[in-house]
Fold:
Amino acid sequence: MPTPLAPDLASYLDANDSRIHQELFDFLRIPSVSARSEHRADMTRAAEWLAGAMRSAGLSAEILPTGGHPVVLGEWRGAGPRAKTVLIYGHYDVQPAEPLELWTSPPFSPEVRDGRIFARGSVDDKGQLFLHVKAIQAHLATRGTLPVNVILLAEGEEEVGSDNLTAFIERNAARLACDYCVISDSAMFAPGLPSILSSLRGLTYLEIEVEGPGGDLHSGIYGGAVVNPATALARIIASFHDAHWHVAIPGFYDDVREWEPEVLRQMKSLPFDDERFRKEAGAPALDGEDGRSTLERVWSRPTCEVNGLLSGYTGEGAKTVLPARAMAKVSCRLVPDQQPDVITRLVTEHVRRVAPKGVRVVVRELHGGMPWRAELSGPLFDAARRALASAFGREPVIVGEGGSIPVVGDFQRLLHAPVLLIGFGLPGENAHAPNEWMSDENFVKGMRAIAALWEELGRA
Amino acid sequence: MPTPLAPDLASYLDANDSRIHQELFDFLRIPSVSARSEHRADMTRAAEWLAGAMRSAGLSAEILPTGGHPVVLGEWRGAGPRAKTVLIYGHYDVQPAEPLELWTSPPFSPEVRDGRIFARGSVDDKGQLFLHVKAIQAHLATRGTLPVNVILLAEGEEEVGSDNLTAFIERNAARLACDYCVISDSAMFAPGLPSILSSLRGLTYLEIEVEGPGGDLHSGIYGGAVVNPATALARIIASFHDAHWHVAIPGFYDDVREWEPEVLRQMKSLPFDDERFRKEAGAPALDGEDGRSTLERVWSRPTCEVNGLLSGYTGEGAKTVLPARAMAKVSCRLVPDQQPDVITRLVTEHVRRVAPKGVRVVVRELHGGMPWRAELSGPLFDAARRALASAFGREPVIVGEGGSIPVVGDFQRLLHAPVLLIGFGLPGENAHAPNEWMSDENFVKGMRAIAALWEELGRA
Structure:
């Protein structure tokens, strides 16, 4: 039987539930879109708001500059030098909200419907970051102390590749020294099923530009004799996969390490329903690399996906242009031991090789991140299992994750600390799409699980 | 030696040159973009302006409703029932001007630079339509009469497929009855080289929509297991051609009639320079269907071109979405005896056949037009040869045209009158692109050539 959360902590969170929600909604109202220069002031506002919330919780907090958006660093070191130190990482920036017309309620006006908190950033990652602030506050407000020292590191560039975070960690390695890292920026396997992450996919994100004529041409006067950049781009993209959805870029799979048989076996025992997944995606049918299950395809196999296409005339009606250029945003999800820079080079070489005569191609790398695989043992892992069991009333499952959190590899490498990923999102949460939501139940239980985690770690 | 233009007509056009230009510029200032509903009032304004200009020239003029933008119909029948009647066709609508940032001077603020009149619609087709109005005015103002009866039919939907014109012609066939049709909506082969058109390509313009998931998805969480509509669209487009730029849609070439050897021989004798054409296009290299010259590719061979692509995230920076949908605008240029509806069917069947599992495809036909080939003999053709020689000082050449004027086939079919296409555009005029221009010399000589044409036809 799991140990229930200590009554004082539980009472505190219950009694303050309404205020905590109001504060979260204030945080979600700030459109902290890191990708857009017009939201620069909102990014500053979000950082200041978060620093204020950390101080209210009893942490010291500083806004520290980087080469881009600042880091908000909260600290509480009252447990003393002999206690363990935990670094919690999250991010206060969010994805762009476009296309706005597809949101049922406005992206920066949080609204609870059917037990879901709808807002851009609700689950990715403001809600999950904020529940950590509140779990700390529960300890400090009721007991004036915590069983562990905590460092809360919130960055503002996760959605644009965390370009400045590695340098920040390197520069502040002494201050950030810790025994464990904890991150909540992922999803549970299913409602009611607490989950510990065993893997993340990495990423390399590219922009491919195909340049043809000097300007858009009349497709009648020139069509047939001038190579069409949009057609050329389509041929390039079509060459990325074979007929079995196997990536056909030479060398792409060379560094892929297959999963351990034990993890694969656990994966196969999960209550996964292809048809439910298909419905969540709203897709007519599922399909992907031949000979792999859906979970293998999204957790353990690399991809090459088009994220955006733009060329020529895309407005109302018909315009007979032969476009001057065509652009694709393309990203590859990577698995251990693929390296983003190696994959970028392979894709770039492939694109140059297959581009037809008559066009120029330019490939730009926008950002990248390393794939990651966890160690599934030790005191941190055991404490997390017990804390999740206490909050959710059942043992957690071990799951993979198709998304990327580029900094996880950096934490492990630079701080020499094991990383624990326990997320409270859910399938279908629209993390990077319109109508993003976070389960309100998971937000509430997440605070309890993290409050319990500090207790468990204090006992370890 | 060509007969020079009668001195009274020449003097009139010389003396009024500045006023004629100012009037043309007034016409060009009206942004009569038929494709965009926000320009509806401008379309009305352009029709009214044109009717006023026809009346000033001595024609009666009416604005006649259609199912879409109205037709402006000018008439002068003073030559009497025994004289020939000529129907002149042109259009007062223009292409959208986007992308605006690529224009050196604003599209609807005409400006003359280096002997070129820059404005959207300058050459396609307002300038060429207006020179007909002025050629008629030269006759009526100096002599009070014309050797032929004239009907000036200007439509407002040429750039969106002339959807309502066929019905208009059918409905008004008695009123539009004529001996000859004359159209100036095409280009001369080269500066100083007057040209008579022997062929036009037809068109079918389609929009292909590939629908995948119900909304944009996180490319990490779903990527690999849900078919990407943008990738699917790229594969569909890539299947349109083989490696030799031969259209690979089954049945596509079945109805293509090869050109007569004599016309091909004339085509090969034209002073055509691939390198100059490449420079005009601003393309890194020319390429197209194997085994065909550039002029064959654009005049005598059908194409399948992408006019626009749109999918997913296309803004600044990186957004890792798996797009819900992907759209392509695709048009096929057609040659005799291809039929637009047959080609639409073949493309639609092909798209459905090659679309991967996991996406839905929808193909919509936006508009179409028949290809056309001229009869290169008879009184109209002979009069045109002499009139062009008189204005330009040399015999015209016989040329093809890669573009489409969908109504040409309709005139021939419904009015049983031969159609003469003499255009005064020039290569590189950017007809459907930013920085459209018309040669001022051609505008001026065009008025003279048309004034001479009525004299020649009167003698025929």
In short: The mean pLDDT of chain B is 95. The longest strand of chain B covers residues 202-211.
